Amino acid sequence: MAETVKLTINGKQIEAEKGTLLIEVARQNGIEIPAFCYYQNLSLQAACRMCLVEVEKTPKLQVGCTLPVAEGMVVHTDSEVVRQSRKGMVELLLTNHPLDCPVCDKGGECELQDMTFRYGLGESRFVERKQHVDEEQWSPVVYFDRPRCIMCYRCVRVCNEGLDVTALGVGNRGVVSQILPNFHDHLECDECGACIDICPVGALTSGAYRYKTRPWEMHHVGTICTHCADGCRTTLGVRNEKIIRGNNRDSSGINGEFLCVKGRYAFDFTEHPERLQSPLMRAGGRLEPVSWSQALEAVAKKFIEVKQGSGHFGVIGSCHTTNEENFYLQKFARQVLGTKNVDHHRSGDLATLFDALTDRGKVLATVEDLANAKAVLVVASDLAQQHPMLANQIRASRRLRGARVYTVTPGPVREDKNAVASVRVQKGGELAGIESLRDKLKAESDLTIVFGDAIQGESLRKLIAFGDSLGLAVKYICLVDYSNSRGAFDMGLIPRDGGLSREQMLARDLDVLWVVGANPLKEVRGESKAGFLVVQDLFLTETAQRADIVLPAASAYEKTGTVTNVCGEVQKLKAAINVMGPKADLEIMGLIAREMGPAAVRTLGMWLPDKVFEEIRKTVHGYDVPMPVVATGGAAPTMPLNGRVAALPGSISSAGDTLFTSGTLGRYSKVLNSVMESPGALYEEKGRHS
Amino acid sequence: MLAAYPEGRKRSAVVPMLIYAQDETGAVTPELIAEVAKRCEVEPLQVDEVVGYYSMLHRKPLGKYHVQVCTNISCLLVGGEELYEHAKKKLGIGNKQVTADGQFSLEEVECMGACSWAPAVEINYDFHHYVTPERLDQLIDALRKAN
User: Fold this and answer.
1) Taking residues A579-583, what's their average pLDDT?
2) N- or C-end of chain A: fewer Cβ atoms within 10 A?
3) Contact B46 A173 (CB under 8 A)
4) Are both A610 and A634 inside the same structural domain?
5) Tell me, what DSSP letter sits at residue A21?
6) Whether residue A397 is found in the same domain as residue A322
7) CB contact under 8 A, A171 and B48
8) Are residues B123 and B80 in the same domain?
């Protein structure tokens, strides 16, 4: 601790770091100073006057949220005069605040409600009519009820400082001030919903959640978002087997309170009407619904037949399924089907990265490392669009801890605005761009390099050589697309030891192609080349449409297991809802094995997530993670940098999803489709509309 | 103008830039907001906030002569309110309205810092002290004649 001061709050002797805000010191010592506008990590506002406290030897009450503690300060937070002032403040806030708590979304978890109960007067002396203004819809997901607003400016600050979007502002002055959206009557922004989350009252409400339930009628399930690879924890509010909202108000994950539009709203694909309900089997050229037992039997029969006939298998796994499922699938392929043809859609060159960094210590940055990095270099990625949480982390590091940001990208990115240096490069010119920053980067004390799919193979080795030549501690984050892209690689869904790559499998006349949770035929025209195509998926995708047997799969929000995020951190999924019809991919694979006979089950082991994870911990490099961390919902970093990985066949490319797309899942999310008109392509400067 | 502010403080120029631009164009239009935002490297919304906040920035064109009558406490005590009522009758318009010929507009304003010489009236950038209804008539008539 730096220089400390001694002060007294409510008669309690307290030692605190000099310069800390009084409100923080009080909170750290278990003394509540109520406040609306004060919010940790946002700029100070001192607008609500709820935190007024009495400081001896000062003539007037002091604002606790802007007052740094000083030596010998004697503070009273619960004296008669302070209590009176709080009552007055609450009374003023309530003069025009509608008392529609019984229908307000915020009722039950509203800070104004809580404060009124705790510190309020109970009755108001104001008898005048309240000024009503109709609610406004600012975007498909943001509604504004002006009379409920207490002008704390939290939304404006979080949008401006936290997200760097500046879509909200304050219009007019005095009693007619109001929060404004950036396009007069509507918002064009990230639609991240941070403003709704941070609103202490029900002024900003969510289009996806409003008027659907009361907060106490839901149960809350903390799980991991199934969209991009950042691995944000989203706490799903569930009622009657329906996910009603997603947020992370308890800051329980690596993302803190941050969620993007996908984590917050795009869980609605789970109840899309086109969701597959029962297995489908091709009969007379058409896919017809059949029972699970018929479908599983048919798959097992085909697998046995092809295996006995020494036929060729191909297995393509998913970037969304759990580690357990990916592990089980590759084991199934290698040990039961006896094929090396195993792959998934690879979106970052992890093979080369792990190989080049073999036997080094902690050189893969975790999300926490990124937050503490003194300098960050973003290469070939529109981070704010593709990896919103990492982008948010970098913004926070810069704003709160002065991290220095560099960008080397093919087009403008949001990070440019606050970057020390930005270099525009053509595809292929990334390394030259980085080289031009050499002198600047050399002067940093440490560096985290975040790079996209343009850096692969030889250029990745050159990037690492460049990092080594700087003479400082360099850490790396290899960007991958989806929630368990990293896990799919780590679990071995890769064509090692001479297996066929995804592209090769699609081009060959394999006897059986087994696709689990992927859509490799999306861009391919005509029939599948495989003799027999088995697909496990949530929807009838382009691939599933051409299948011989389709097995309906559960989504990540409907099963347990673990996933590994882009930084290699393992986190636990918790099932939020149960669905009729579909089964978890692990169970489907287990049941196929059972149909194939006891030998297959003996080889693979039971299809229980915990059992499979035990095996992963014992056998997969770097996955010997502490069980208590994972079991309690923490993020356990993995260090897979041992054992060389030979070069793999096949291509590596990101699907290039933006903030508002998410592969197949995104296509079936009504919310994501409704906000699509907002920022579109990657590397497009937005915001500066003139 | 941006050169008058320290490096990285272009935002500080928003208010003076708006005032000078308004003098030239007559009002703060959305195009003007966008242009100022571009020059000062802020979002148009942030310029919009400033326009809403300051009462001397107007979104609609004013008259050629903008008559501002103070009715704040010091002026009120020595006849500011009567003066304002007189001005309304004389010009035939209400608060923040413009005469049909576009020559005059009227605004009831808060303290202009001329309390020592109350009641005060400001016409465009010119202050007039100890203004009586008769004096106001003379001022307005003189301006009418000047056209």
Assistant:
1) 93
2) N
3) no
4) yes
5) B
6) no
7) yes
8) yes
Question: Residue holding tokens 């009236």?
Answer: B121
Which CATH number characterizes residue A61's domain? Answer: 3.10.20.740
| Cβ contacts of B59 on chain A, cutoff 8 Å | none
Of B34, B35, B48, which is closest to A180 when you measure between CB atoms? Answer: B48
Number of domains in chain A: 4
The yes-or-no verdict on residue A433 having pLDDT over 60 is: yes
* Range of the structural domain that residue A431 is part of: 350-478
> Can you tell me the distance from the alpha carbon of B86 to that of B65, in angstroms, rounded to the nearest whole number?
17
Chain A residue at shortest CA distance from B43: A688
Evaluated on CA atoms B24, B30, B35, B40, the torsion sign reads positive
Clarify whether residues A511 and A630 are in a common domain.
Answer: yes
| DSSP label of A327 | H
Final residue before a domain boundary, out of A216, A240, A271: A271
- Where are the alpha helices (H) located in A278-387, listed in sequence order? 292-308, 323-331, 350-356, 367-372, 383-386
Tell me, yes or no, whether A261 and A288 share the same domain.
no
DSSP single-letter state for residue A558: G
Question: Do residue B89 and residue B69 come from a single domain?
Answer: yes
Q: What is the pLDDT of residues A201-235, one digit of tens each?
A: 999 999 999 999 999 999 999 999 999 999 999 99
ipTM of the complex: 0.83
Sequence-separated contacts (24+) of A541-544 with Cβ below 8 Å: A541/A664, A543/A515, A543/A518, A543/A519, A544/A276, A544/A280, A544/A519
Residue identified by tokens 């699938």 is: A329
A180-197: burial string, b at 16+ Cβ within 10 Å, e else: bbbeeeebbbbbbbbbbb
Report the distance separating Cα A553 and Cα A386, nearest Å. 26
Q: Return all residues near A658 (Cβ < 8 A) that are at least 6 apart.
A: A382, A385, A386, A679, A680, A681, A682
pLDDT digits (tens, 9 = 90+) for B80-98: 999 999 999 999 999 999 9
Q: How confident is the model at residue B8 (pLDDT cuts 50, 70, 90)?
A: confident
Find residue A537's DSSP bridge partners.
A552
Q: Residue A245: which residues within 8 A CB-CB, separation 6 or more?
A: A206, A208, A209, A212, A218, A236, A237, A264
The beta-strand segments (E) located in A28-77 are 52-55, 62-63, 74-76
Q: Tally Cβ neighbours within 10 Å of residue B57.
A: 17
Q: Are residues A214 and A235 in the same domain?
A: yes
User: Does residue A494 share a domain with residue A473?
Assistant: no
Whether residue B89 is contained in a domain is answered as yes
Domain end (from A224, A247, A271): A271
Tell me the per-residue pLDDT of A640-656, one tens digit each, with 9 for 90 and over. Answer: 766 667 788 999 999 98
Q: Which domain covers residue B17, as residue numbers?
A: 2-53
CA-based nearest residue to A264, from A339, A198, A179 = A198
Which residues fall within 8 angstroms of residue A454, CB to CB, at 6 or more apart?
A379, A380, A410, A427, A428, A430
Quote the percentage of chain A above a pLDDT of 70. Answer: 98
User: Nearest by CB to A172, which of B34, B35, B52?
Assistant: B52
H or E, element range at A84: helix A80-93
Residues B123 and B77 grouped into a single domain: yes
Compute the distance between CA of residue A479 and CA of residue A656 in angstroms, rounded to an integer.
11
Nearest Cα residue to A293 out of A89, A42, A549: A549
Is position B90 within any domain? Answer: yes
Q: Which of A172, A182, A690 sits opposite B45 (nearest CB)?
A: A182
CATH number of the domain residue A636 falls in: 3.40.50.740
Is residue B58 one of the residues assigned to a domain? Answer: no
Contact between chains at B52 and A173 (C-beta distance less than 8 A): yes
- Residues B38, B75: one domain? no
Contact yes or no for A412/A423 (Cβ under 8 A): no
Same domain, B77 and B98: yes
Distance separating alpha carbons of residues B38 and A553, to the nearest angstrom: 51
Residue A215 and residue A198 in contact, taking contact as beta carbons nearer than 8 Å: no
Indicate if A186 and A227 belong to the same structural domain: yes
